[in-house]
Design goal:
Length: 110
């Protein structure tokens, strides 16, 4: 999916969108742009971790269910890495696991 990774400049506010549903990711990307953010999209956990380290986004939206790993695993890796642990992460899921997300350093939207 075309995103803003090739046009990001130093100082830009960047949202990393991690979701394997291209329709929903496209909606989030549009909302990010409306708010003046640059958007980067990843549809797998490993790609999200690499992009977070490379671009140091301002914030991350993270789906719980991804094809290669659970979003909880991605969240744990982000929070254990000194380079990414400060990045706010919003967990997105239809599952009602809000307390789990909060206890692992995320803020949750259900």
């Amino acid at each position: 999916m075309p995103d803003d990774r090739n046009s990001i400049e130093t100082g830009d506010a960047v949202l990393l969108i991690v979701d394997d549903d291209p329709h929903y990711a496209r909606i989030l990307l549009g909302l990010a742009r409306e708010q003046g953010l640059q958007g980067i999209v990843a549809n797998r956990g490993q790609a999200a971790l690499a992009l977070a380290r490379e671009f140091r986004p301002t914030a991350i939206t993270l789906d719980v269910f991804l094809p290669d790993m659970l979003g909880w695993t991605v969240l744990n890796s982000l929070k254990l890495d000194p380079a990414t642990r400060h990045i706010p992460v919003q967990m997105l899921s239809v599952e009602e696991e809000q307390q789990h997300g909060l206890s692992h350093g995320a803020f949750c939207t259900w």
